[in-house]
Fold these 3 entries.
Entry 1:
Amino acid sequence: MNAVVRTVLGDVPADTLGTVDAHDHLFLRSPMLPGQELDDPAAAEAELRAFAAAGGTTVVQWTPRGMGRRTADVVAASRATGVHVVMATGTHQAVHYTPPPTPAELDALAGTFIADLTSAPVRAGLVKVAGGFHGIDEHARRTMTAAAEAHHATGAAVAVHLELGTAPLEVLDLLCGTLGMPPTAVVLGHLGRCPDIRVQREAARTGAFLAFDGPSRAHHATDWRLFDQLAALADAGHAGQLLLGGDTTTAAARAVDGGPGMPYLLRVLRPRLTREFGEELADRVFVRNPARAFVLRRPGTDRGGAGGR
């Protein structure tokens, strides 16, 4: 069976994704970001057009359930611009919901995630969950358990928000140790917010994908550390696990509203990556690695080991 990625317009061969923004948001709302909602379909379409003009062909939207995914508008924007969009199901931290979900609701999430991935009118292509600060609280444990069950049933990747970049090893112990997921089906987000390269290398040795995603985040000093971290991980043999994303979460961060937005990845970061490390690594980070990270695996299989080379 040929490897495919599930987009909002249907499954596409993984090797046709092209240049990928591996973590971003077209639509998003949260009580933690009052007045900063991403909820304008015209602006979302304009951002996708700007990304396409810079050479981008696929965006992976990590917005989970209950945070304004606006699935119909995502479909319309993808169709209008020709940019592939891979949409998430999943659940964020409890603070992003009013009221927060109950334990009983959390325990029922696996079926909801599986339906979103397999039978919803607009199907998701990955599951997004979130850890806590330097640990995994009960909410995170329950949502990750549901996400792992959804992975085992569907083969979808699980993308993890690491709070301020912390607890990647604890997350991997739960998902891949206790819950039996292959590390190659896990994408660790926000690693750059906690630039502990020793922990990053330990996480990389498992085979998990490592997402560095922060150019739009003015309150996180991620950019100046980024290239040192990428160099350390590539030198350690993990170039095949690196991903880059913009993680645009507010209207002001969009390129169409004066921020860096999605195009920044290709206008600024990709040329720098090419100058410093060569085109081969840039092609891995933006093209080949995402095609492996977000592929739908056959349920119950682990395609490969560490995957670092």
Note: The longest helix spans residues 138-154.
Entry 2:
Amino acid sequence: MSARPAEDLVKQWESEQALLRQQVVEGDTEDWQRVPDFSGLQRVGGVDLSFIKGDDVNACAQLVVLSYPDLQLLYEDSQMVTLTAPYIAGFLAFRETPFLLESLQRLERDQPQLLPQVVFVDGNGLFHYREFGLACHLGVLSGLPCVGVAKNLLQVQGVNKDEEHQSQITALQKGGDSFPLTATSGKVLGKALRSCNKSSKPVYVSVGHRISLDTAVRLTHSCCRYRVPEPIRQADCLSREYLRKHFPAADT
């Protein structure tokens, strides 16, 4: 792709992001979000894309729905997809969202009683260059509450992986402890969460859509048996399992 079409595409995507960003709801909208034990929450979803090693075009788009609070698998959907949009940093959602959205729409059409009440996304929400990451994009287009949970720190808006950040991580003593990810502007874009006692490495939680940050952090912690919340962990495991089964010669 030549420089000019890429520049035009970035401008187009920036414009689309800005319009969609206006639709993000950053607060709690559901009754279950407002109670300490999330009473009324019965189904939590998780989405992920897994690629065959060396192939950044063909992927397995995965959706899982787990029961809450016991986190048992209720539904799974694995689909091989071909990504058509190029990868440009900060615009990952334009590559991945269409396929994840299709998975949710397929579920809503075929088994609406299993549609998740909240979706965990392997990626960022408001913690993003323009405060509109993958979890926001999927949330706005699906209309569902979404939570972004990233395994790696996106160094953005003045948040850096420096000594101060590392000392804050060290200060997280137990599962559930967190600290804010504050932009240069002073806005809190997300939180670093020690998700369980077993792992001292945090995850980075941010609002996707229709949930507050504090609720997103509490819910993420409640869904963690290991470092990564179960909906995302199981989506990742099942998508990799699908690739191993259907593409045994490839190293996934």
Note: Residues 3-21 form the longest helix (19 residues).
Entry 3:
Amino acid sequence: MIEIQIRHQIFTSSGNKFLEVDERISEGSFVHVSGDSGIGKTTFFKVLSGLVVPDFGFIKLNDKILLDTANKIFLPPQKRNISLMFQNYALFPNMTVKQNIAFAQTEKDENIVDELLEKFALKTFENTSPSKLSGGQQQRVALARTLAQNAEIVLLDEPFSAVDIAMRKVMLNELLEFNKNNNSTFFVISHSEEEFESFSTYNLNII
């Protein structure tokens, strides 16, 4: 069970707002995170991953407390076993595609990296710098790297925005397979709500 309680002031172009989330989500869920633009969905991901400390927060993953502001408990990002895919991909320009994907692994396994390269049609680019790839190719690398971490919680911020329909289906099927086989909990922000309605097991609407 994942317990999340967050209250955090955010500053937007339309004024100050409070991001408020109070949810209990079963492990292995596929969570579609919805809400208007600028409402705080990306900030929510940053709080979950440990990149932002909220004004008030309590996050518990099974018996492990990741955050408890009332008792001054804060697990740093590297100890949360949460992987986050940013909208800007955050790839390392000084590494090859293969090195970028492998970097995410705590326990190195080249077979898994090679498998992800094949599944996302990146094998021919494995020794290429990400800066020489198209936006869609970079997005595939970023998703492959996120999955390579094999984290308990996976946070994806608009993971398919730059790829074509055919590759979108490939990537989506891979996410669903990973979710099923690893019991990882997925949180996905996407404006393509219809794409996720048929298989999401939980909808978290931020208002």
Note: Residues 65 and 183 are 19 Å apart (CA to CA).
